[in-house]
Amino acid sequence: MAFKRRICTVGINKFTTALLLTAAILFAPLYAMSEDRVAMNFKDADIEAVVQFISELTGKNFILDDAVANKKVTVISPTRVSSEEAYEVFQAILGVKDLTIVPSGSVFKIVPTQKARQSNIETVDNETPPGDRYVTRLVTPKYVEAAKAAEILTQLRSPNSSIVTYEPTNLLIITEAYSNIERLIEILDAIDIETVDVDMKIVELKYAAADAVANVISQAITQSAKSPRTARRTPSVIAAGKGGAAQPAVQVSAEEITHIIPDSRTNKLFIISDTDTLDMISSMIDALDIEMPTGTGKIRVLHLKYADADNVASVLTSISKAVGTKTKPGQGDKATPSAQVATAAPTNRATQVPVNFEEPVHITADAATNSLVIIAAPQDFITLKGVIAELDVRRPQVLVEALIMEMGYQRSLELGVEWRTTTDYSGNNTTVVGATNFGEISSLSSLATNPLAGPSGLFLAAIDGTVEVGGVTFPNIGALVKALQKKGDVDVLSTPHLLTTDNEEAEIIVSDNIPFQTSEKFDSNGNPIYTYEYRDVGMTLRFTPQINDEDYVKLNLFQEISDVLSVSTGGSSNAPSTTKRSAKTTVVIKDGATVVIGGLLQDDSQLTGSSVPCLGDLPLIGALFRSNSRSKDKSNLMIFLTPHIIRESADLEEITRDKAEEHERFSEDKMADDNSSVGDKLHELISNELDPNPASKKVLDDLKEAE
Fold it and tell me: What's the rounded Cα separation, in Å, for the pair 552 and 72?
């Protein structure tokens, strides 16, 4: 092949030569001061001019092949470089133009890459010179067969390179660019290991990304190791596609010698391991390499069945911000922060690795369809879908039976006696779980003779199962209240039944809208003008249930009762005054049990008057024909709450059916008796069994006669 010698005279006329010499003389001091650092800036320059520049800078002689002519080069170098760095840049330029340098004695040939293999390429043993030029490397594997190694390396070499084997000495002859030959040697070192029954498997992935699957499998193998032991080789993921050293190895047990090499260009996995591990990895690949339900795109829509789309989107967005994304090649430290599972694992445990998303994740909620619109990489979507499946579950519900009533103080005392004594004679039907201001009560007779000795503050009680009073069994506390209500001094304010979802607030308000005067002014004629605002006066019940695994319900309760106390009349305006009783507490109660909140006392004073018409209005003597009376009543507000956990629709149907049967049975078997039967048995039970005190008997006798 004929070459034209173009050393320092290629395409250069006398004027150009003189100009270059003048520039060299003028700038020689500048080069010396900057340690021979030069600026390389070429714009659409002929490659011959670039070769001329490098030849004068390095003192090397170059011979250009005819195919090198007419190639243009653009180089932008904002900083000055040394002569050695300039030569490296020059070799990279040749690589971009599909050219390479072949040493030939004291000169260097610049030839097309495809001709390099037939040229006098430099042959090296261990130390490969830097640069992108082609070299021939002789490698002798110790354990793996040269032909087997060549089969693997051939799939990873550059298009214009070659790998030749010499079987008698188990030699590999690799002709490749330096930038890739070091990577091939790294892979050869990974497979050239001393082991028994090591095999290699190539898996082409259909849906998942090769590097992502390799990373997941490496993490799984790492964390499956029971305890770390000294290994001859550790499994690693070796970078493929752009060259470079192997990524940090992940330690496993000594018996497992596994290497997973992803090739992003062909989306294949090269797996080297023992037979058993290969089978395990193949199963893992089958589980990971699946087609996404909604296609292979990055935008997917998931319709939620039970959870609220806005809430789930908020949770997932928080997760994506906390986890971050993986570091991309060339980004260095610019990757987003990641949530690391464990920063430092103990020596007797497998090291945990950071958890990252492959790419940025975006989640948007569509309230109209209760759906999530997710933009994520396929492997990230698999992770998010698993989280969504755990969040989008049907939550249990809670049916709360509530009874709010006011009792006259005497009836309140009687009911209080039953609660305080039931445990003593009927086992576990009733248990007082909390109270305030009980004071000292030496005997039951003190309650009968001194009603104020009863609980004067807020008290709580839990009643489990049926309630038995005087031999009469009531199906629930509501039936007992109905029986006592027959006496006329029990006022049932409300009996709401609320059904809500676990951890969701429920509220019921039963009230009147009462006008309240807020301002008064007068017009030009002196007539008053009143301004009113309407406020709700009545009953408010609010609670939030929380169910645990043991079928206990935590209730965050708020109860408020307000009432119009009086209306003051002045002119034509009304100025109502109200009373308010409220309770806010948190209780934990078993499914089906009843919690009682009481002790919210109220004094109701009433003033009534009567007079003889006309005579009662006379001055002075009118007082003889009219009379006034003042009455004062005390009432006790009590709240009964019974939660029922509803996990399935059949549970709600069963509760409804049971309640209907209980009320029907109670109505037929118990309420048909004379109302006094309850008082008779209550009288007999307390007077004969609990307290034979005559004073207590007298009080109960008076109650019976009042019936």
Answer: 81
Amino acid letter, 27: F
Asked if 304 contacts 287 with a C-beta cutoff of 8 angstroms, the reply is: no
Question: What is the distance between the alpha carbons of residues 503 and 487, in angstroms, rounded to a whole number?
Answer: 39
Q: What pTM was estimated for this model as a whole?
A: 0.43
Query: Considering the domain 38-191, what is its CATH architecture?
Result: 3-Layer(bab) Sandwich (3.55)
Q: Are strands 362-366 and 371-375 parallel, antiparallel or unpaired?
A: antiparallel
pLDDT tens readout for residues 8-44: 333 334 444 444 444 444 444 333 334 568 888 888 8
Query: Can you give the residue ranges of every domain in the chain?
Result: 38-191, 396-565+575-646, 648-706
User: pLDDT tens digits, residue range 498-507?
Assistant: 889 999 999 9
Residue type (1 letter), 490:
V
Residue-averaged pLDDT of the chain: 69
Reduced to 3 states (helix: H, G, I; strand: E, B; else coil), residue 265 is coil
| Rg of the chain taking only CA atoms, in angstroms | 47
The CA-based dihedral angle spanning residues 312, 318, 322, 323, taken in that order and rounded to the nearest 10 degrees? 30
The span from the CA of 415 to the CA of 419, in Å, is 6
Q: Cα–Cα distance between 238 and 185 in angstroms, integer?
A: 12
C-alpha–C-alpha distance, residues 490 and 483, integer Å: 10
Q: How many angstroms separate the CA atoms of 290 and 300, rounded?
A: 16
Beta bridge partners of 263: 268
pLDDT value at 190 more than 50: yes
**Which has the higher per-residue pLDDT, 499 or 421?**
499
Residue 689 has what DSSP assignment? Answer: I
- Which class for 613: exposed (0-12), middle (13-18), buried (19 or more C-beta within 10 A)? exposed
Residue 505 and residue 129: Cα distance in Å, rounded? 74
